[in-house]
Fold these 3 entries.
Entry 1:
Amino acid sequence: MALLLLLLLPVGLIASLSLIGYGFGTLGRVGLRRADRKVRLRALTALLGAAAAALYSWGLLHIAGAVLEAEDGGTDSSPLRPCRIPEERERVLHVVDYTVNYVPLRFVCETEEHGSYAAGSVPGYVNPGVLGLALSAAVCAAAARPPRGGVDPA
């Protein structure tokens, strides 16, 4: 699990920086004022994809911190620190394990009674933000494609 986090974090950052470079490079070659609708939509698609990848990487960073905190043994390690919720003291005492869900991004605490709950490790804006940015990028990418007839009117 930690190995997948170590793989996804740099991939997300590299993808984000690459998409930023592609988006601004596309506009820089032609110029913002001389760019047609298709070029602007391609650049916007790349920038929205970069924002989605960066936000997902931000959430992964929070998950990595929670995993490191959960794996840290020692005196104050039971119940797992990321799983502690002050209002629900009884359920927290019976946490036996954890899992990481990557879509939606969350740290899940598993209890003795085969129940589970999501700890608040990932900020609440990450998952809706990634979804909104990814859907916006998909819409822009679809709008930038030529129509099925093969001839682009622009």
Note: Strands lie at 95-102, 105-111, 116-118.
Entry 2:
Amino acid sequence: MDQHKTMIIPYVPEYAEQTVKMWRDSKSEAIGQKETHSFEDHVHFLNCILPKECQIEIALVDGKVVGMIAYNESEVSQLYIHKDYQGRGIGRRFLERAQKQSSGRLTLYTFEINKKARRFYEKHGFNIIGRGHENEENLPDILFEWEAE
């Protein structure tokens, strides 16, 4: 498909508003719930808190943010793709980058209600290792794990 137009770059704050808007839209689409935090708090989290724990990358198509991932050597903290750009290999490319940088094992959480994400992670070698609902949304979630072969 038009994957050649998709650039993955390290996140920089000039993309903060676009990234947060895409993130919030994608998340509410996936779980049917509006974001609990204000837009400003979300930008602060993206610019000031998340970078302390994670490497953040964004996907751009024609200069527009269409996806983001935040990860470190043991965990994928955030992974969102705009609904109009899902199924184009962007999420797979993000996961491959995280897997390459990992210690050989990655964990991540997704909401139980997000069946698309669950299928996506299972298709890419992640297995369910736990369930719970310790999250701000108070929704049941699933803990997935991937291990290098």
Note: The two ends are 29 Å apart (CA to CA).
Entry 3:
Amino acid sequence: MNEDQAVSALGALAHTQRLRVFRALVVAGSEGLTPSVLADQLGVARNSLSFHLKELAHAGLVTIEQQGRNLIYRADFAQMNSLLGYMTEHCCQGGVCEVTESPFTCASC
């Protein structure tokens, strides 16, 4: 991930409704959700939700799959992990965290 992609992703998440939508898609996992289910779960107007999903998709944080007449939205976990990796790439001098042995969580920073 480069700096421009990180700014785009972070910008897309820097809105309360989009952050809620993204988190709901993360919880849904690989099954994803349709916009109508998302709208019902989050109590968001469908036209507003459409705008937010478009922004998240443009930032590469969600994928869209057509299944029959429905669109299925899913969190793009690879892109999310790429963003986390970009944000933490210099943690513990850019290596694996000595405390947690994970490149994404560092208790010593």
Note: The chain has one domain: 3-94.
